[in-house]
From TrEMBL:
Keyword Lyase appears in the UniProt entry: yes
Enzyme class: lyase
Keyword list, A-Z: Decarboxylase, Lyase, Pyrimidine biosynthesis
Protein known as: Orotidine-5'-phosphate decarboxylase
Family: Belongs to the OMP decarboxylase family. Type 2 subfamily.
Highest taxon in the source lineage: Bacteria
Lineage: Bacteria, Pseudomonadati, Bacteroidota, Flavobacteriia, Flavobacteriales
This enzyme's EC code(s): 4.1.1.23
Keyword Lyase recorded: yes
Pfam families the record matches: OMPdecase
Annotated pathway: Pyrimidine metabolism; UMP biosynthesis via de novo pathway; UMP from orotate: step 2/2
Organism, as annotated: Gangjinia marincola
Domain Orotidine 5'-phosphate decarboxylase: 16-254
The reaction(s) this protein catalyses: orotidine 5'-phosphate + H(+) = UMP + CO2
Length: 272
């Protein structure tokens, strides 16, 4: 998907909400466990109930890999369902990959071609030749981990290395890589106070911002410095939406949670 088409969807829906499809069979409504494919049934119900409120969906592959073949099948059915029924929705394979060049190329093919996602999350630790293979595909985007939402982010990412914090070095250096205009970055909502400096280094790139809801990040704080003139933000919520109820009304309850976030986004966009 072209970035300009994503921006058009954001303007049309007045939403920059990304719904994380992190399916946990221990948390989904028990009545779905009787279905032939509980994971896909759950995703389909969530997508059907929320697709007009969200511009992106982000299945975290760990939640599918954990169930082996049936998990992969459900992931494949989910991406095919989205691409067939909602081709204007941006899709993110949250797989956090990155390896030596020829291996990264295979990961890119797995998630851009075999599964036809628009983007994949990528770890920057192995450097340029591990990330550039993800940038070779037209209209596909690598979303580089920059400053993550978890506490461990302070172990390495904010450490001083040769006079600068490591995450800033990741931001600056990655902008020099081939096809860097296809890069987006992950910044945790719990790190909103860093966004002013981050926007200084990368004013134009989209940011995927997880950590609102269950992890305690604030949408308003993220928007203060995170927004740019083409919005430039995708705010992810997973558990806060998916598990609003585990009764028969789970999809309706998820919609109510998504709607509250979308309303907040609409207000923010009207004042921006
Ligand atoms: O890359 C991510 O999406 C990600 C990066 C990060 O720094 N923090 C983070 O929570 N995530 C993912 O975003 C989702 C957050 O889920 P909730 O906390 O349930 O909304 C999970 O799939 C995480 O793996």
């Amino acid at each position: 998907m072209k970035e300009q088409d994503l921006v058009a969807q954001i303007r049309k829906k007045q939403s920059f909400l990304c719904i994380g499809l992190d399916v946990d069979l221990e948390k989904i409504p028990p009545h779905l466990l009787q279905k032939e494919d509980p994971i896909f049934s759950f995703n389909k119900a969530i997508i059907d109930a929320t697709h007009d409120l969200a511009v992106a969906y982000k299945p975290n592959t760990a939640f599918y890999e954990a169930y082996g073949l049936k998990g992969w099948r459900a992931l494949e059915k989910t991406i095919n369902y989205l691409n067939t029924n909602h081709p204007n929705i941006f899709t993110i394979a949250d797989a956090k990959r990155g390896d030596i060049g020829n291996t990264s190329t295979r990961y890119a093919k797995a998630f851009y071609e075999t599964m036809a996602f628009d983007s994949i999350t990528v770890a920057p630790y192995m450097g340029k030749d591990s990330v550039e293979p993800f940038l070779e595909f037209e209209d596909k985007h690598a979303i580089l981990l920059a400053l993550t939402s978890n506490h461990g982010a302070y172990d390495f990412q904010t450490k001083q290395v040769e006079g600068t914090q490591l995450y800033k070095e990741v931001l600056k250096t990655s902008t020099t890589w081939k096809n860097a205009d296809r890069l987006m970055y992950v910044v945790g909502a719990t790190k909103a106070e860093y966004l002013k400096e981050i926007r200084h280094i990368i004013p134009n790139n989209f940011l995927l911002v997880p950590g609102v809801g269950a992890q305690g990040g604030s949408l308003k704080e993220v928007c203060t410095y995170g927004l740019n003139d083409h919005v430039g933000l995708l705010i992810n919520s997973s558990r806060g939406i998916l598990y609003a109820s585990n009764g028969e009304d789970f999809a309706e309850a998820a919609r109510t949670k998504a709607e509250a976030l979308q309303q907040e986004m609409k207000d923010i966009l009207s004042k921006a």
